[in-house]
Amino acid sequence: MSDLKQTYFAAERKRDDEADRLRRLDAFYAEPTQNWLKGAAPLKPGARVLEVGAGSGGMLAWLAERVGPTGDVLGLDMDLSRAAPPTAVVRHLEANIYDAPAEPSAFDLVYARLVLMHLHDPEAALARMIEWAKPGGTIAIADLDCTIAAPADRAAPGADLFDEKLHVVRAAMVRTGLMEPAFGARLPGMMAAAGLQDVTVERFDRIVEGGSDWSLFQAENNLLISGALGEPEAARIVSDFMSRPGFFYHDQRLVMVTGRKP
């Protein structure tokens, strides 16, 4: 079975298909992420920002708007071919976070979303992020706690089956190294243990209905990873419920944590 800590689970997909998936994912989480950063890590004109795992580049443009024409936004990812081209404000750096050429103590904000939970050594990645931040600068990380996903109504038809197969899929995520389902829950403690000060936490929770745009996106993702997880039947059943109008469930939680470099 694949070790998905070492291999990008969608590496074999067509480039345009994966680019579209990443853009959709960015759009679904854009509003809560931006609202969080506006309050927890406000940026002044001329500020310098590093985004780790910039992906489709959707947040790079928004960050560039916040820092203005005198600011500097650096997007770091192993593949930035799906992002918009660099600009006078936005730079690209294609590299692995563990050995990327650093710009020590250079950035007012170092930010990552839905990245560290997939890495084989998130503590080392966090250490690199802290290295790049200025003294007094902000580290902002958002990751998922998937363990809270569950039927909203335990008495709903099929609720027990949905819950059972969710547990199977989550166990397979751990077994294959795709991600640590509870990573978001331990992120605040990890950031405090790394020496960051003034650690604050915000959580984005919601109940969603099967058949909604977001639920259908989740259903597609479950089917996409089902082969690599080795649990195609469990993933199919979960996807079926997520595609079913009238079936409500607690969504995975987005845990958003900020800390200040001493």
What proportion of the residues is helical, as a percent range? Answer: 25-40%
Strand adjacency order, main sheet: 3-2-1-4-5-10-7
Q: Round the mean pLDDT to the nearest integer and report it.
A: 92
* Class of secondary structure makeup: alpha/beta
Uncertain parts: none
- The tally of helices reads 7
- Number-wise, the strands total 10
What is the terminal separation in angstroms?
42 Å
How many structural domains does the protein architecture include? Answer: 1
Explain how this protein is built:
- By secondary structure, the protein is of the alpha/beta class.
- It has a single domain, classed as Vaccinia Virus protein VP39 (Rossmann fold, 3-Layer(aba) Sandwich).
- The protein has seven helices and ten strands.
- It has helices spanning 15-40, 58-67, 122-132, 159-176, 183-193, 213-229, 232-242, and strands spanning 48-52, 72-77, 90-94, 107-113, 133-145, 150-151, 197-204, 207-209, 248-250, 253-260.
- The chain has a seven-stranded mixed β-sheet with strand order 3-2-1-4-5-10-7, sandwiched between helices.
- Helix 4 (159-176) crosses helix 7 (232-242) and helix 6 runs antiparallel to helix 7.
- The radius of gyration is 19 Å and the shape is globular.
- The protein starts with 14 loop residues before the first helix and ends with a strand.
- The model has no long low-confidence stretch (mean pLDDT 92).
